[in-house]
Amino acid sequence: MPPCEAHQQTIGLLACDRLTLNLVAKAESKGLVMALVLAGVGISFLPDGLVEDEAGLCTLPVSGPRMFRRIGLCYPAHQTLNPALRALIPELAGQGAS
Predict the structure, then answer these.
(1) DSSP state letters, 61-78
(2) To the nearest whole percent, how much of the chain has pLDDT over 90?
(3) What is the CATH number of the domain that holds 54?
(4) Hey, how many other C-beta atoms are within 10 angstroms of the C-beta on 58?
(5) Is the pLDDT at 97 greater than 50, yes or no?
(6) Residues with Cβ < 8 Å from 19, sequence gap 6 or more?
(7) Which of 1, 13, 30, 87 places its Cα 20 to 30 Å from the Cα of 94?
(8) What is the value of pTM for the model shown?
(9) Is residue 98 part of a domain?
């Protein structure tokens, strides 16, 4: 299966801000990615249309170049944010010190 073009673009956009991914799981569909996020496995960038009705997720719009569609950072609503995620949120929201 060829690499996902949106995944490759996301890696490139993060690299522009000197950020890297810590890949903890791979999934073959966006629905499975969302299930992994809901289970607390990690966080992800997912299309708004996929997550807009999912009460178990917190979403944060990401400022920056538009890709194929509008995406946002998704993380489980029921978990306490770890320090790395608390630091990442303002950066991705365009409120960081970059």
Answers:
(1) E--S---SS-EEEEEETT
(2) 5
(3) 3.40.190
(4) 19
(5) no
(6) 88, 91
(7) 30
(8) 0.59
(9) no
Contact 76, 57 (CB under 8 A): yes
For residue 44, give its domain range. 5-92
Give dist(CA 22, CA 5) in Å, integer: 18
User: How many domains would you assign to the chain?
Assistant: 1
Most confident of 5-9, 10-14, 31-35, 90-94: 31-35
SS3 59: strand
User: What are the two backbone dihedrals, phi and then psi, of residue 44, each rounded to the nearest 5 degrees?
Assistant: -160, 165
Under a CB-based contact definition with an 8 Å cutoff, are residues 87 and 93 in contact?
no
d(CA 62, CA 94): 7
pLDDT digits (tens, 9 = 90+) for 45-91: 888 888 888 888 888 877 666 655 566 777 888 878 888 888 888 87
